[in-house]
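Quick one - inputs below.
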Amino acid sequence: MSEESAAEKLKEYSPGEEPELDRGPLEQWAANMISNPERAYKSMFYTATVFFLVTTLFPFYWLLMVALTQRGSLQNIIFLPGSFDPTLLAEGEVTMGINFFAFVEVFTTVPFHRYIFNSFVIAAVTTVIVIVVASLAGYVFGRLQFRFKGPLMLLVLIVSFFPPAAFFIPLNQLFNTPVDVMRPILADGTLYNTPYAMLIPFSALFMPLSIFILTTFYSQIPDGLEDAARVEGTTRIGALFRVIAPLSAPGVATAGVLTFIAVYNEYFFSSLMTDGREHNWAPLVEGILRYQGQHEVLFNLMAAASIAGVIPVALLVVVAQEKIVSGLTSGALKE
Amino acid sequence: MATDRSNEGSNALRRLLQRPVNRMETLSEAAYAYILLIPAFILLAIVAFYPLIATFRMSLLADETAGADPFGEFVGIQNYIDVFTGDTRLTREFVDVGLSGSFPFLELGTPFLRQALFVTLAFAILSVIFETLIGFGQALVLDKEFRGRRWVRVAIILPWAIPVAIQGMLFYLIFQPTVGFGSDLMQWLGIFGSSPLASSRDGFIIVLVADIWKTAAFMALLILAGLQSVDRSLYDVARVSGASPWQRFKMITLPIVMPALLVAMLFRTLDAMRVYGVIDSTVGCSTVPSLTCLVVDGLFGGTRIYATAATVAFMTAVIIGLFVIVYLWRFRETEGGFA
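Output:
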């Protein structure tokens, strides 16, 4: 490595070279190694990375081991499935007691894919509503000056002071009241057992967080950029969605990811606003709870189901984080 | 021809849109602000403000456990007084503190971790401190350029993506003495007693660990978003001026991240003060009672004390409100802050 860093050193000090341009990660690392005090920070960085990876991933690994354990042998699982026994190989069992079948069983005993789909749709629609509505509010709170701004922000925040249970009884009555106008769209005129019974409360209850995130990020965009857009002929709304929001991409993407995941995983309303059947838009949580049998809780199936349920979110995070990274360039536009 | 007609159509549409758009352009700043706030406040009015008013009305009525209607006559703030003095049929004390002659002049009737208020406060403070520190560390790691960063990022965010029901099951199983390894480990370290899932103190630690594991990622994501709006050239300027990494962190990173950090801490505190799911799905509300536990217990516990439950919900909100004042005061001081 010393040869490489020496070469790097030469390269760095050769005349006419701009060292800050276009460095690959390895070159960056090599360059940083030259300046000595950085070395300590580097090793600290790698230690921290490994520590975080182990602590976050190990429970998932353990969950996978629980999922692969055969029913009835859930004991002392640490690194291997509880029913794992290499001696079974001699008896002609190729799986050695590992229950791969759990991941098939998850979808055959309960239509789990439908529950995932329901949650995914509800979370996606809620996220879109929240981001659009919270963008308007975040723009107002972050960039405009008007009377009652403080009290109105406090009013938004106060919603988050109350336990979700505080909203439940009145909302439940409201959603179970038949509304004649809705009869053509909804079976019996009530919102119970429809996705709206979850969309509407989630949109409102998760909105304060997004409003505050977007307020913070929108307020940091320099006024000059918005003025320039207005001079170029954009409308007021256009300036928000074409200039302010794209420049705050890290904030918008973060608010979106946080909202999506929070709704996807919501526990309290999700389990009360439907009767738990998949064709009535019951979400993921209800699906997982269906593995609690009459006589025993099917821990291995619950574990397998949760791994299956986390995969769509993981994929979303991979896609969304591209968006977050692309927002990196926006930093260059700041004054 | 076809393009002409579509142009005509879009022109008509444009004319139709022109008027409100034009009016929007000429509105005063305040009027424009109020118009943009309408959608948010309509949603909040239906889902939040209306139910809260209804719930507040409930909290002023008496519990009626026998009749058809679960609410009795108007009793004013009697429910609030009863909850404070412990004169209710809730399964756990809200708070049980008496005065004594000797230092520190306050005496706890029931042990600290059996009282909802103290459990909730201890949980909120400890979890927010740990989650902020760990989340900041994770965000700093994710902000660096390195190979495989995208996968490290996914790995760190993954716990936040797991449903509460599963998180609860996971930690219940890990600390379940026969299935998992957690209790053996903690007993070997001398932290846990013999039956961790039944002890308030050990149960509290389990809930705390489970919550930190899951929600540190929430802090990390928000802080990361703040870090990414830092102009990279500032670091180059600082480096040229000879600032050490610690100075760069203190003088550049921290001030710019501060608004996002405060929003993250504020909402984490709000969530932690309302903790319920992770308790219910691991050690249970009777072992570690939180304020929300009391509310849910009153509503769904089968004892029909709806009015008392509504009272506890409002008292929770008031306590959270006191906490929030501290944050709002800090917000005022940050650059680009609001209010």
